[in-house]
Fold this sequence. Notes:
By secondary structure, chain A is of the alpha/beta class. Chain A has 14 helices and 18 strands.
Amino acid sequence: MRSKLQEFPGKGSFAHGVHPPGKKELAADVPIEVIPPPPRVILPLLQSAGAACIPKVKSKQQVLFGELVAEAQGFVSAPLHAPLSGIVQKSVVTTLPNGRHVRAIAIQAEGEQLQGQALWDEIFGGDWPKQGLQEFDPKRIAEAIARAGIVGLGGAAFPTHVKIMPNEKKTVDTIMINGCECEPYLTPDYRLMLEAAAPIITGALLAARATGARHIIIGIEDNKPKAIESMKRAAAGTGIKIAVVKTKYPQGSEKQLIQAVTNRTVPLGGLPLDVGVVVSNVATAAAVARAVLKGRPLTHRVVSVTGGGIVHPKNLLVPIGISLGELIDYCGGMTADAARMIAGGPMMGFAFHDLATPVTKGTSGLTILTHKEVEREQETTCIRCGRCVDVCPMNLVPTRLALAARHKNLDLIRKYSVMACFECGCCAYICPANIPLVQLVRTGKTMFLADRK
Amino acid sequence: MKAEQTQYTPVIHVSPAPHLSSRDLTTRKMMRDVLLGLSPVVFMALYVFHWYAVKQLMICLLGCLAAEALFMKMRAKSATLNDYSAAVTGIILALSLPGAAPWYIGVIASVVAIGMGKVVFGGIGMNIFNPAMVGRAFVMIAFAGAMGAPGYEQIHATVDVITRATPMDAFKQTGAVASLDSLFWGLTNGSLGETSALACILGGLYLCVRRTASWQIPAGTVVTAAALAGIANLVHPESNWTALHHLLGGSLLFGAFFIATDPVTSPLTPKGKFIFGIGVGFFVMVLRLFSGYPEGVMFAVLLMNGVTPLINHWTIPRPLGAIP
Lengths: 453, 324
């Protein structure tokens, strides 16, 4: 048995998973830089899970930095705010990296902009109290989060006020702040833990206050000793515990993290809430602190621009709505052997082709991979070696799901629990026959959902 | 550097995630690993049987490669020789045959192994039965004389060991018991690959450590065979053929490590693999103890190959968080 986590019931790891090359060294030691304000931002009306928001501004209208430009529509939805001062232009349609066409608000920058160190101070600077947060009313915290338009910044972009709120039906006893960052290449959360630990701690305390949770745990993979050190220092005296978990992909998946730390298993098709846990990313926690204490909305986020295909890998604080092409330009452009541009990391990120694609709230980074990095052997027949079964963190049989999807066999798709897959990509990563297992499973899911309707 | 740059076209393409793939794991590399794992066994075969082994290995290797090329050409598909799977079949087939068997046995076994064992099902990955064992079963039944017990003994052979009966057969016929020592090192008569327990264990452990072979299969087989052999010993305490003789003698270890572990014809899940291994061990012992044959590995593996789809059906793992 591997050594158990001290202080925690979990084993510090989950069953199965893979060890892709981390490649964090490309950008891990580059401090976060504030990108100069772009001339124009494009804000897609759907940046989160749930419903799209409704524009509240008209063409040619003047907006100020932080002003509301689109309102949430329904409970599972998040409002949008202007990341810079300027003039609203005619609305446009943009294609997000995940392939969705959405309407977007375009804002042309005009007038004085907050930038550089001043912008950093406005977002992460100042005093972040660790005591006396009891004075905040739980309901007020949830409202402030909802007003600020905060969504999960780890990539899933689920509206945060839906998770961090007083819940009458289910008791929450643990707030889990996710600093695992298991996706290869990406380093924004790592840099944030080093450079802005204080707001993360304050955000975590506020989240606990809002949900009534008694325990706050920050989960960090053991390949980030500096981040562990930094968070430990910032958390001193608050009762917040740091859980050092094993470096393994997908450790940062919430179900796997909960398993590793608390030894609780989230029921199939259920939420962490069902086992009394709310999981939130470190960057989300920092945004929560800012929203509650300063009343400021989510307008900027930290992203990594990394990979073998970028000239100068960097970590940047960028306004939401800046184009991915501008990020590439700012980092010295692409190398001659660049082959694929990915919004997000290489395991779960989406490849895109349009440099005008905007950064959304859920964009955790931009990974440019070279021909050598994306190289894969030709697909061959499945030799039923079972490696995909050995690595699947959800304990599925990916090769069977793929086969069922290929042959459009709905019975088999159902029998092998297609919807349990969260598309982490472990199976397709390990497959010796290079079968596009994730793609086939997605096909299977589509067929399953179409049949249910 | 310049040449490297010109060979790439400056095209950005899109593709579904994941964008990385594990490079040290391909079908070809796994097959190459099996060949590497087989090398101690091949070495012992060459050491014990000299040119009998050379001849049989060459016949089966070339036979399987030629058969693969021929059949794939007939199906108008690109030949799959470079995935080494036909080579693996050829080597395993040769190692499961007696060295002194006439040349046409190797040829016919190869053609049947690749043709009826693999290609008719649709080629690599599609077959139900272990191709090498299909080939061996065919010649064993069709050429019972050349492949039965007398096929192993060549009184006038130039290599010393072949002038004697195989240990399993000698025991079945006359009750003579081979020393554990000779079974362990492999200085006895038998099929080319089965004689040395040491070589099988070395190569087999390598495959298990590399995870090219799933350890659950040999573990299940060996534990079950040991348990049943132990019971047989208790029932017949007067027999000198002990449980250890059962484990080290015959092709139990060769079969457990190299034949039963063929991924295509064994179950997918760890649990299924273990059940498969237990099944192989069980049938080997039943055939050894109660049938007319001295050995039962081949039929045991083929039987369990047939049950594999059923085992897969029984052992669908429960997804994480699913209610039992």
